[in-house]
Fold this sequence. Notes:
eight-stranded mixed beta sheet, 9 helices
Amino acid sequence: MFSSLNLVATFLCGIHVASGISFGNTATSTYPFGNGMILQRDGAAVWGVGASTEDVSVSIACSNGQKVQTKASVETYGTWTTTMTASAAVKCVVTVAESGANGATATMSNIAIGDVLLCGGQSNMGFGMCGAQSKTQSPQQALDDVGTVALRYFFNAGSGPNGGAGGKGCTTSSGDRSITQSQVWFTANATNSGGASANCMLTALYLQRKYPDVPIGAVESCIGGTNVEPWTPPSGGLWVQHMAPLVPMTFKLALWDQGEADAKRTNSSFYTTEFPLMIQRWRTNFKCPLPFFYVELCTEYGAESPKESDFWLAQRSALALPSTGFAVTTDVQRALHPPDKQDVAARLVLEVERIVYGDNVVSRGPELLAARPVGRLGPHTDAPGSIQPAGTQALALTFSNASLVVHPGILVPNVTACGHALDTMNGLIWQVMQYNYTAKEFMALAYTIEHSSVTISSCAVTGGPVRINADVSTCFLYGPTGLPAPPLALNCTTGEHVGLL
């Protein structure tokens, strides 16, 4: 087992390339390769260009005795490519050499082999480590945290609050400045990670701690304020500029935090088809399965003209594809750029553990299995001195978890509302919400919880959808492991989904 401090730093490798052959995309640049990088284990694309018409040989030799050798085929215009299959190990040397006894070599050193994350999206993915703030950890503490393991990181592109390469950075706990370099591989620590994506780096950090025998690294490529379409291959401008140059680099998985721009522009219908299409085309272009995990928006942002309330559903259209997952965030914080990326990363890691690494973990909160109208439950006391009003309906909901609980969110709490149980024996709580068109406001509804069932005693048949864990919630429905149910919107009279899953 590798120690946390020397996990990747001691995984020393060299990549040697024949004279006249460039390792990377052009004859004048090794991008996206470089000293200190990490290659994907169990099948990494390695490529370059050059004038030679001879095949080149590629070999890996590690201190644990692992040896791998293959040929790199020279193609049109002298480009060469191959796939190297190697397991995680320490102190390896990777050599790329021109065929023949006189073939010269060039070297890139300190190469790791492990699992590599690709991180994309808009400004919430670009939100920097300098601003990562949870209830229990400051940005300075988070920066100190990343230095306890040896993550390899490549900042290809990024923009968001407290994020980005260069600039003034932020002050570390030791008083130094934390400034991130662009398009150069580095081993993350407090002084070089401030501008890196907090979602990306913290997810990599938590994965590294979970799997200490496997070096972990990440590549960040995101741009703030962007819609999904420009990221879609082959002709999307952001794809061409910021993702295509990375092809055919091999990645273990992709993380995605985007959608605010589409939600605010009332783009749900388009997103429902474009988002899955983007994922499929990424997989095709990177030539790997690329398990894909997205961060669900913490709010739907109230798009107008016409107003839509189904952007979460549009995001979840991606779940029809294999090897996709998501993290619910409505209970974490409500803001355009929520600072608590620590809790978001922790939820992403659970999905990755289950889907990518095959671990037996609970990675999602209670999921709705069935919803049915059960007629009026009245007369029923909703408040002292009142009975269930006319024109109301009861709904019975069944969830996937047998032990449901309700409590405040992480940073969206309302202790008074969550603790206001009129009927403590039945767990009657005022936190299922419905829009009252007459009063033009959301109203809290009474409901009871028993094991895996929630019964809503009185929703108005003329009101809007019944909402749980949505924008208006101030306390939330959770499963026994502390994960929230995905946001729900249900028709009061039929129990059918309305906008949200």
